[in-house]
Amino acid sequence: MIRAALLCALCGAGAAEAAQLALPANAALSAEVTSGIDSYKLPVGPWKNGALPTRIFEGPVQQQAWRIGATGLTTLQLLRPLRDQLEPQGYEVVFDCETSACGGFDFRFETPVIAEPDMHVDLGNFRFLSMVREDEAISLLVSRSSVAGYIQITRVGTEPENALAQPDAEAVRSPSVQADGSLARTLLAQGRVILDDLDFETGSTRLNGKDFASLQALADLLRAEPDLTIALVGHTDSTGGLDININISRQRAASVLERLATQYEIPRARMEAEGMGYLAPIASNLEAAGREANRRVEAIITSTR
Q: Is the domain 174-303 a CATH 3.10.20.30 member?
């Protein structure tokens, strides 16, 4: 099994422009299938009336199955961090569905899937995402069992090279506030930002009582952009069990949401709080500095309505 703090699941020729995904540190590559120049029918709509609408892409095709040992994670918690990494790289969502909205049983068996046990698909609990960037396409199929999450990544369009090379950490880490303090510019340009000045009470998931420049800037942006909605997503280091860390990270995100709602009067309906635990690190958990960096709360744009 292959384990690393950061995994470049998809690297292509021309590293500056290649699609890159940082998977959780406990993700293990269970299967990989590559081919030369081939075609891939990218699903662009749900199975309906006996047919699955697709768009054909041609080029080298790479398909990977990943297993993440974890209980309690939803398919959305597995999928969304990957989608949020691809959008700033220029990929656009063309189809996003969950289980019955995809077409259920018929959709699953009309879509190429790596065989069990390498890729497990619960027919009652899966998500599918198609994304396109010019003549490149990526699809993500996500499901889970009682003890693990499963992610299938299919990519077509650019020659895959060194699919498991470790990228420059700065290329995949979540963006933080820029040196000039322009949180709004960073969030609007990249879709997410680390609220890197937050401070929680010792041994607690509650924010301490001081004012935070990042929350003021975020509140100012939300007032200036009344159609903007966000998710506040908490993250932890890898100390302790996953379920405990997901709960802690969600509570920290909820604490930030509550501060924005009460002190800055941002409507709760425009915010949601989620927790990823230790599943989306931005640095190595083997070092104290890395663990500190991984303990964070991010703001992610969810909609501009």
A: no
Q: Residue 158, exposed/middle/buried by CB under 10 A (0-12, 13-18, 19+)?
A: buried
Answer whether residue 180 shows pLDDT above 50.
Answer: no
Sheet holding 92-98, edge to edge: 27-43, 54-69, 148-156, 136-144, 126-133, 92-98
Rg of the chain's alpha carbons, rounded to an integer?
19
Class of residue 71 by CB neighbours under 10 A (exposed 0-12, middle 13-18, buried 19+): middle
pLDDT in tens, 196-248: 889 887 678 889 888 899 999 999 999 988 889 999 999 999 999 999 999 99
Six token digits for residue 29? 């590559």
Residues 6+ apart with CB under 8 A from 125: 75, 99, 143, 144
Give pLDDT, residue 13: 34
Pairing of strands 54-69, 27-43: antiparallel
User: Could you report the per-residue pLDDT of 9-51, keeping only the tens digit for each?
Assistant: 554 333 335 577 888 767 888 899 988 789 999 999 999 999 9
The alpha carbon torsion through 58, 59, 60, 63 (nearest 10 deg) reads: -30
Q: What is the pTM of this model?
A: 0.53
27-156 CATH: 3.40.1000
> Could you state, in order of their start, the residue ranges of all structural domains in the chain?
27-156, 174-303
**Percent share of the chain, pLDDT over 70:** 84
